[in-house]
Amino acid sequence: MSEITYIRGDATVPSVKGVKVIAHVCNDIGGWGKGFVLAISRRWPEPEKSYRAWHRERASNDFGLGAVQFVQVEPYVWVANMVGQRGIRTGSKGVPVRYEAIDAALERLAEKATDLGASVHMPRIGCGLAGGKWSRGEPMITDRLVRRGIAVTVYDHGEGRS
After folding, report:
1. Distance CA 87, CA 92 (A)
2. Is the dihedral of CA 7, 12, 15, 20 positive or negative?
């Protein structure tokens, strides 16, 4: 069985051939302005616009924890906006990350990646602003994606990340 590939670099610039899905975690309150989403917005305006409209119209769509929105940004590149964190601040209910929601979103991502014949590229989802631990996220990615034969690359940007 293959494993997750780890490289240092920018997940918004995957250097492999074929169809690619760039996956990341969003919050459930419509906020887009810190963390990995800034790198996405520097390259393409569509994922942010789509996410904000999805949130704004949430009364009539599936927006919520565990949902995924797929936005095609180039002929062979998609961005997966995965709703996997409750709010944006650590508070009395703990950190914003919601592992069950990320797991549900990864299941939807696996279906889309399989349909597209795509590889998946991501930062260490749920670990930055969401406050989660990679030791919880990595096994979900292995279970939902790698075990189905989907190639997954995780990108560490910059120096000193654990």
Report:
1. 12
2. positive
